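This follows on from our talk about sequence and fold. Can you supply me with one protein entry, sequence and fold together? Could you add the entry underneath, on a fresh line?
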Amino acid sequence: MTLNNLDAIQKSAAAFFASDQSDARRVFHGRGQRFPGLEHICIDWFRPLVLITAHAAIDDIEELKESLLLADEHKQIRTIVLQNRFERGAPAQTIYGEAAGPIVASEGSLHFDVHPGTQQNCGLFLDMRCLRDWLLENSLDANVLNLFAYTCSLSVAAIAGGARSVTNVDMSKTSIKWGEENHTLNQQDLRNVQSVPHNLFKSWGKIKQFGRYDIVVIDPPMRQRGSFDSAKNYGAVMKKLHSLCAPGAKVIATINSPFLSSDYLQELFDKHNPEGSYLGEMAVAPEFEDKYPERGLNICLFEMPDFGNPAVS
């Protein structure tokens, strides 16, 4: 696929690199379908590396590379990596500069170990930046449950915001270990971090051992083979909230699907927690603006009832 509208990328890159950029950010979001002909391209910054993610072949990759380097007014780019997500295994290659390797990415006061191009996901979802900011501001003294924790960036933010404890649940032992390393990278005491590297639906008893939770984050993949399907299993998670949450707990639920929207989450929450409240949608990082926001990432904030919870299993 050729680049029919390279001007849009050049303008975004020039505006971004006009100043010193220490924080990880999305530079160009073609997947938001706001730039005709560029829907297959996303560009992310993990200083000093640019990651180009292609969802279809890019014929003019040299032209794209040169446009990024031209926009780099302060010569911050040392490496450019191209990752072809449309190919089996999402292979990546370094097309400029030094060979790619693990990077410590910054986001404000937080730091994360990221591996751009080494696997399908680099270890940090940049579209969740505003949720990490919310957790920084709202987690003081909270007991936080982080479901589908991946590399635990959300619980890192919660601990940094003063949470007294977090419980990370993910079936990938590799991701949970990566998350523990992120906590350590931020000089956080692992005695305040509980790790449950098991299938969620086989772990409810273990999760309940760590007390009632003041904040619950549910951030699942759309589909995880053999363990979770948002269209089939999300309701089972919503049903468990009464037995997991402290009175008045905040519940944050996300969905990222062209077929399911925030209305789907509201319906499930209302069905299983009719005494609770829907507080509204939370912001997605603004650089991820989407022509059809209902088809992109949706983050909903709920509140559990502020009275004793029945023992629902």
Observations:
- The chain is about 25% helix and 30% strand.
- Residues 309-313 have pLDDT under 50 and may be disordered.
- The chain has two domains: 6-114, 126-303.
